[in-house]
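Supplementary notes for students who missed Thursday's class. We covered one full example, reproduced here. Read the sequence, then the structure, then the short commentary at the end.
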Amino acid sequence: MRYVVVVPTYNESENVETLIPLILRQGEEFHVLIVDDNSPDGTGEIADRLAAGTSRVHVMHRREKMGLGTAYVAGFGWALDYDADLIFEMDADFSHNPDMLPHFVKAIADCDLVLGSRYVLGGGVENWPASRQFMSRGGSLYARTILGVGVRDLTGGFKCFRRRVLETLDLNHVETSGYAFQIEMTYRTLLSGFRVKEMPIIFADRVQGISKMSRSVFLEAILAVWKLRLRLSRRGAQMHLLPPEQLDPEVLRA
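Structure (token representation):
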């Protein structure tokens, strides 16, 4: 088995050198693709140095900052060509705990997409101001109401796909970037009849670097939800949302 963790980066020099070894130590099956958007802080050079030290780290250099969604789409295409069995999305800023990766592998045994969820039993956030919690929870509630899906955390970016999901979805026609991309990918997966499950995670705010979240990004996602419903909604589509994965609380506190 081969698993590829796609990690988009822009100005993550303070994080990437520490994060990548922690991903690799989860098992020999784990490989990392760093998709760097020509970070001016030298993130790409650090990524190249990491890749030079092991065959399990790979780097894709893009000419400029082109958005989260396009970074993931490019990374997904690369991972499929690399014959990955499972493809992960993961932030570079330690908001997502790399020790959770093996739990995603276990959880996907009976489904096609596992979502790391802040808003199912056991999940949560740490060190977030009330304003950001309101935007995140409100955005997820808004999106699932408009789209008519039961997913509690539609905007989360810690995910694990089976390759057949990404092979089936037409990645060339993904319409959104930014945080709306996360909503679109889950919605497309459900509309295509794949089985989706949420798994609790604790989302910790970044320690180093600057968050890419902004009010404009949030508003863009709000508008994108209506476009997704109008363009993608299929009457009678069978959406398979499985009960959330249950984890020992000790796992989440680790």
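Commentary. The mean pLDDT is 92. The domain at 3-253 is CATH 3.90.550.10 (Spore Coat Polysaccharide Biosynthesis Protein SpsA; Chain A). If anything here is unclear, bring it to office hours.
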